[in-house]
Amino acid sequence: MPFFYWFDWTYLVFILPCLVISMIAQTKVSSAFSKYSKISNTRRITGVEAAQSVLSAHGVTNVRIERVAGKMTDHFDPRSNTIRLSEPVYDSPTIAAVGVAAHEAGHAVQHAQGYLPNRLRSAILPVCNAGSKISWILIIVGLFLPVQYDWVLYLGILFYAASVVFTVVTLPVEFNASKRALAAIKNSAMLEGNEYNGAKSVLSAAAMTYVAAAFTAIMSLLRLLVIANRRRN
């Protein structure tokens, strides 16, 4: 059973579609970011200026904004209350830069306002990290053990389920951050007509990568349950 874990029919049914969906989602976000990173916005607003504008609009003043190396490495760090913008975003006056920076500022606003799904995600993060590290060890060991020791396999699946919960809880957090970003962009007129639509396209494509990740996690969990149940029959 362990040898065929990766190659039996459940892989084709549960995992292969996820790989295709994830690849499509990643291609779309890369394409959208690349396209709108080449188009400057009319008002020449940079990423860092967009982030500052979103924070100011919500009265959030204690957040630092830093430059970070790499591409698409933008993120908000709640531990240090810092927004880190990648080099193509920080001081770039493009449509994509405004959208991405405003999104990360949206996360900072969530943190400042105690947005419930964000608080829940932060609370379960340590458990999910620990669970993801130990889950596959228990699962692989459980697959090698006789069926009477299936409790080891199911314990591993339980730990893995914790990481699945994290990916699902992440969805409302990401969608809400984009919603806040787009509202701020529109209300402050940072971007005009088609420019706004471009930023929306970038954020929508990025959101789909989180949907793909959650779908993959859920399907992987279902696959594990099918394999575990099959051992008992």
TrEMBL record:
InterPro entries: Zn_peptidase_2
Keyword check for Transmembrane helix: yes
Keyword Transmembrane helix applies: yes
Residue intervals passing through the bilayer: 6-25, 123-145, 151-173, 207-228
Secretion signal span: none
Pfam families: Zn_peptidase_2 (PF04298)
Keywords: Membrane, Transmembrane, Transmembrane helix
Protein name: Zinc metallopeptidase
Organism of provenance: Candidatus Scatavimonas merdigallinarum
Source taxonomy: Bacteria, Bacillati, Bacillota, Clostridia, Eubacteriales
